[in-house]
């Protein structure tokens, strides 16, 4: 069975930068452990990177979330230091939006049977990508490790987990 671990947007701006939070910082060790385990078990790993331009505030997303973040080429856009060595040796998909059609298509084309997502933010990019992947890979087992994800708030994190469960994404708890 082909497996893949998808690490969503573990970037400086989401962990300690302009949109960082204590909850995001709390999951770093767990995500790092997941990545190390996947590498050791020879499971494929894909990183995503939220990617915007200097014109971000002039976009629809920028109008609704007026916080400049993850501008390509900046420190905030980079994968956090502890995960960077792993990201540098695997596939990174830059995505200009919450969900990535490129990611969903790539995962479907590779024929993965088990797909696990971890990262940030549960209630925006993780849920968007989990649902796109589920739609593109109908018979694959798609899961999200709740302990290795963080949302904008704890309530919105839980709401996103519940939404994913309703859409037949397995949520790993505990």
Summarize the structure.
This protein has 174 residues and is α/β, with parallel strands linked by helices. It has helices at 12-15, 22-40, 60-64, 84-88, 101-110, 122-136, 154-166, and strands spanning 3-8, 44-50, 91-95, 114-120, 141-150, 170-172.
Structural description of this entry:
It contains seven helices and six strands; from the N terminus they run βααβααβαβαβαβ. By secondary structure, it is an alpha/beta fold. It has one domain: 3-Layer(aba) Sandwich (Rossmann fold), CATH 3.40.50.850. α7 (154-166) links the parallel β5 (141-150) and β6 (170-172). The longest helix has 19 residues, at 22-40. The protein is globular.
Write out key terms for the chains shown.
Rossmann fold; alpha/beta; 6 strands; single chain; 6-stranded parallel sheet
Domains (count): 1
Global shape = globular
How many E-type strands? 6
The first-level CATH class name:
Alpha Beta
What does the secondary structure layout of this molecule look like, with pairings?
Blueprint: E1 3-8, H1 12-15, H2 22-40, E2 44-50, H3 60-64, H4 84-88, E3 91-95, H5 101-110, E4 114-120, H6 122-136, E5 141-150, H7 154-166, E6 170-172
Parallel strand pairs: 1-2, 1-4, 2-3, 4-5, 5-6
